[in-house]
Write a structure and sequence with these properties.
Blueprint (H helix, E strand, L loop, with lengths): L1 H18 L12 H19 L5 H10 L8 H15 L6 H16 L5 H17 L4 H18 L11
Length: 165
């Protein structure tokens, strides 16, 4: 009888530990000010795509860097901006695609408490968006990988003890 109780205890403990997973964090939602600022990001992306403004890549980096909120994250955000700018050069980037891309870039920098599963989902969504607007899969992979790096730099979410398992 005693060994049966041990087996039950081991099974229950295993289920409890196996059931622990990282809780999802809150996805950011742009307020009115951010919505207006994202118009600048859209304009920067379109200027880069058409080649109208040689300052547009720097403007894009400046517009996105302010959401990093940590000095150590700024170079990583700058690299994301650089990769995104290089990928859209020469593309036909309609308003809707530029808006979706601007929002995704902003969300990848502004989100602070995402779970690992949410970060993976964000990276995948970014890759699918980029491929859908005509960016090569290789470039889309690089940009989405950079989204993961950005999330690692801006995240304020501590790992919980149960996430080790």
């Amino acid at each position: 009888m005693r060994s049966r109780a041990r087996y039950v205890l081991v099974v229950v403990a295993g289920l409890m530990i196996g059931g622990c997973r990282q809780a999802d964090g809150e996805l950011p939602s742009p307020d009115a000010v951010v919505q207006e600022e994202l118009v600048d990001v859209v304009r920067d992306l379109q200027n880069i795509a058409t080649g109208r403004d040689p300052q547009a890549p720097r403007d894009l980096a400046d517009d996105l860097r302010k959401y990093a909120r940590r000095p150590q994250a700024e170079p990583i955000v700058d690299e994301l901006s650089r990769r995104a700018a290089a990928a859209v050069v020469g593309l036909d980037l309609p308003d809707q695609a530029a808006q979706r891309m601007a929002h995704s870039l902003w969300a990848s920098i502004a989100a602070r408490e995402l779970s690992e599963r949410q970060v993976e989902s964000m990276k995948n969504d970014m890759r699918l968006l980029l491929v859908s607007i005509g960016i090569s899969d290789a470039n889309a992979q690089q940009i989405s990988a950079q989204v993961g790096d950005v999330q690692g730099a801006v995240s304020a979410r501590p790992r919980r003890w149960y996430e080790v398992f």
